[in-house]
Amino acid sequence: MAAAEFRRQRWALLPLTALALLPLPAAADVLQEASQRFQPLWSAGGMVASQEAEASRVGRDVLRAGGNAVDAAVATSFALAVTHPQAGNLGGGGFLVLWRPERLSRGRPPQPQEVPVGKGRAVTINFRESAPQAAGPDLLLDASGAVDRRKATRSLLSSGVPGTVAGLLLAHRHYGRLPLGRLIAPSIRLAEEGVVVSKALADSLETAAPLLRTDPESARLFFRPGGQPYRPGERLRQPQLGATLRRIAAQGERGFYQGPVAQELVALMRRRGGLINAEDLSGYRARVQPPLVGDWRGHPVIAMPPPSSGGVTLIQLLNILEGFDLASLGPNSAAVLHPMAEAMNLAYRDRNRWLGDPRFVAMPLERLLSQGYADELRRTIRPERHRPARDLDPPAEGRSAESPNTTHLSVIDRDGTMVSTTTTLNFPYGNGVSVPGAGFLLNNEMDDFTALPGAANAFGLVQGEANAIAPRKQPLSSMAPTLVLTPGGDPLLATGSPGGSRIITTVLQVLLNRLEHGLNLASAVAASRIHSQHWPDELAVEEGFSPDTLRLLEAMGHRWRLAPAMGAAHSLEALPGGGTLGAVDQRRAEGALAGE
Prior knowledge:
disordered N terminus; 8-stranded antiparallel β-sheet; 22 helices; globular
């Protein structure tokens, strides 16, 4: 039967009621309306996307002054330490992924860890916190051998050696263009002259008041005289933080890891039972590492290697899902969400079993990242039935509340250089303890280690011996700063997110929405998300999924729960003829774009 005749007979068989429900032919778009509800912003040059507007503007001004994407990322990160104390930080750590066009490297010998990718070279910088020399595997246990949650999250034993300052300065030293003092000067001004307290910051400080008021220094730094919280529109001045930034601008790493700042930090540790000593600080080194490079239907995907689990797990997920024709099933349909959730469980099982600091543990990365292994895992996914977590691994112990306060920023400059960097204190405001005289909060990243195999950490992750605490070891992280190129090797996407264990799945869904389903960048970021991580055996879903979709997932055996908003994937897209598109994730108030 000819195709035209088949179509004619099929329509003839439909009842009139069904014909009434058929979509009408598209009318001419006389109002010039967009095809998608959300639209990215455009810049003729480069752009910065971060969690706070003033910090984004600092990065934009660096681009306008002739700085490159690394300069802008460094300047924005230091500004976030002032304007976004919840997670912007000097007392924490993070990761940075960089891609530079090959033409910018001519006449300059490549760094040993740089990897050719597409029409440029990629590299990463690891400035994750590290365990103090005196730390041991039972550090966070109580007398009965159970995990002591106060030790793990609220005491100075929870603080790892900070890495942010070393990492940002290493990135600038190797890849920056403008003088360091020029990059830090705006942050010094913001700290000394003060920032206008936004409603989001005022609300955050009020929520964190029970924590911050337990530390006299934090109470003095973040509340008005008399202990009252700041109101929106008032000015928060941080002169001690300004002095610390001045030392870093003048002396580099020595201004933070040695001298008065280091002395104050060590004295605090001695007074209150912490472990970080002067040798821990002076011996800390950020590291340049080669990236992991994956692929999604011809698009090179550049990601962070361990001790971040983000790159390994993201690439493993992409490898598994590439075998499904997701585009034909439609974004966020039950037919797409089911294999995605099952792949998440398989990848997180491997994450928690195998991954850790590569200086301390051997990991089967070649196998985990291979397409052959992904094919094996894909064959275990039942087309219409959820596989219970107990079938993948033994049951886990209890689950704790999640803490999502990390911060991410993306930068693309007018030359096409792309930077994606994620930093964190772990919990909002870390452990709530500030360094006297230095003006910054300390992290509680030691909780990201496996305090006790089989017990969940604060993100509900149940991890193995590979991530056990050891002196100078770096804890496993879920941070996943990510860059994507076009199949032709040109710059395309810079993305990443905060969100604890949900970071990786957030980035995954942004990439699939943009590259597989064809949503524009803003729609790709705004779409509702799911998350599953093997244990607990449940599917977390954001608002926005239809009851019909959820019923279909239930029928497949998924036990779902409505979860808070997941992540804040501030993302950028390089345009082929020049210029940049940007999308801030509205899940967190006051994220901002700033274009040249």
